[in-house]
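Lab notebook, bench 4. We co-purified these components, and the gel suggests they stay together. Before we commit to crystallization screens, I want a quick structural picture of the whole thing.
Request: model the full complex, all chains together.
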Amino acid sequence: MAGEGKDIIICRDVHKWFDRLHVLKGIDLTVKTGEVLVVFGPSGSGKSTFIRTINRLEEHQRGTIVVDGIELTHDIRNIAAIRQEIGMVFQSFNLFPHLTVMQNITLAPIWVRRWSAEKAAQVAMDLLKRVGIPEQAHKFPAQLSGGQQQRVAIARALAMQPKIMLFDEPTSALDPEMIKEVLDVMTQLAKSGMTMICVTHEMGFARSVAHRMVFFDGGQLIEEGTPEQIFKNPQHDRTKLFLSQILH
Amino acid sequence: MTTTVETIGPPRTSVGVLGWLKRNLFSTWYNTLLTILSAWLVYSVLSQLIVWAFTSARWGVISANLRLFMVGPYPPDQVWRPWLVLAMVSLLMGLSAAVWGGTIRTFGNSLAAAYATLIVIALLIEGFGRQVAWLSSPGGEWWKTIPSAIWLTVNLILLVGAYLSARGRKGWQSALLLLWLLSFVVTIVLLQGFVKNDFLPEVTTGKWGGLLLTFMLATVSIVLSFPIGILFALGRRSKMPAVKIFCILYIELVRGVPLVTILYMTQIMLPLFLPGELRVDNVIRAMSGMMFFTAAYMAENVRGGLQAIPTGQIEAAHALGLNEVFVTLFIVLPQALRMVIPATVGLFISLFKDTTLATIVALLELLGVGRSVLAQPEFLGLQTEVYVFVAAIFFIFSYAMSYASYRLEEALGVGKR
Ligand SMILES: Nc1ncnc2c1ncn2[C@@H]1O[C@H](COP(=O)(O)OP(=O)(O)O)[C@@H](O)[C@H]1O
Ligand SMILES: [Mg+2]
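Here is the predicted assembly.
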């Protein structure tokens, strides 16, 4: 359970502007090793921007972010080091369409981790078995269904053997019948003890898997608590309103 | 009420040829009118052309000057070198047809058919003897006197042989690409030769001409403009303002000027930039003009491809820890270049035709040869024959290329992801 591990992500007073638009307004958040955190909130509230600052796809302009003991600064060596420890899964899969599934997965381990091709292929095959699609290894992404593509994207991120996984609405672009296959993989991953931050509105998943949930609105972290607290007894009106909208 | 749902095929809308004709050509009264009108137009033009071509046209002007049309002033006793280049291309073409199949195989087939036709024509005109030294030397070592029909047969055998021996070798693709690149260098060395060398005496580019020169102008400028264009396209998106401004200036200046102007400018200005002892002849100047010109358009093509890559691709690559250079080379460029292949082939076609502009800087490419032939007193008044011949050659190659680009577009699924 959560709360046992050491602090692996520490965000202090994180601010972010897009030109004049103040998108993150002082986020304070600490995530422990092995913790599964679900981030939810209305569209445009800064959820994506926030988790993207953690692997520096977006640069924060004030405050500090420390990941696995390394502070994110302009030093590109730090950024490179941190990106190796963080896997990310996007809403739109972002598989490389000109490479096969196998090549998609082995690319970074071979070129960043400097593994041999055999080792990378071995690990990739194991991961494909874990996400349930070993038979698709030599196809191109366009030949797969959305759910299969997203599972490949998860395998691709896991191949780097990251300590942390970030998910940005991984099921939002999927047809309903494919959502479950992706959530199953994520659940299994959470059970294996991976540190995960998931932006998602799959409240069933949050209820059963998350250790903690945080509610974002207007660039601020409005409320946090266990799923139990959030669903049974939300403290803020905005949280209540939002939950009532998405839970019907 | 319960009914069983039968599966039925789509309704038959056309019944054979007649149905197709009715639907497409005679569906309404104005469609019928247009059909009849165009049929009449095509018939009257084509029939006249065909009647002329087979009765009153005097094709002697072409066969008498065929060497000029093909290689221009290239020394007759060295014509075996362009032949050897062609043989190399046939070999690679055969291998490529086998390895890639599809459109390239169609090309291989067409090339084989073209060789077969040309062999028959060569035999008819040249005969089995060597009285008419058509595209070979009248004397010298044996390889210099090989008659055209034999060369063509060798080409046909190489093409078919290479195809048959490489069928199903998908693994050869990257090696073959390398070979094509290498053949480019070999071609230039072979055609150019070396100073003070008896076996491959130097043939300066000033002596290149005809179809050979047309091809070399187009190929050299496109092959060299490709990497330059990519660099300019990347530079235009660079975060460094100096680089960016330089690239934008270059691209926009060149694109704002007609090719003729650039050809004149390279004729005059290139010697000014180069050190005194380095003399470059007309052909090199024209080639560099075309290369600089094409590079600007290539840059814009590539930029279009780069822009079409979703930012998600780059973000995903960065998130995996891949660095900037790697992402550009292995994630962005391969996808972008694939998208711009059709546009690049289009660029190549227009450059291929624009090589005719080199006549104005006194180069004897295909059209230039045509004009010099017409200037000879014994061929006065044969403009139609010469220009129809030249136009036909341009048409055949341009059509082949646009067909290729069209098929490539389908095969690569450009526009689909
Ligand atoms: N690259 C960008 N440039 C400018 N504004 C942006 C950019 N990305 C996001 N924004 C803005 O920042 C705000 C937060 O966006 P985002 O983090 O994507 O929200 P969420 O993921 O919660 O829907 C929105 O108002 C959005 O329009
Ligand atoms: Mg978002």
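Residues 67 and 116 of chain A are 28 Å apart (CA to CA). Worth comparing against the SEC data before the next meeting. The pocket of magnesium ion (ligand 2) is lined by residues A 47-48, 169 (CB under 6 Å).
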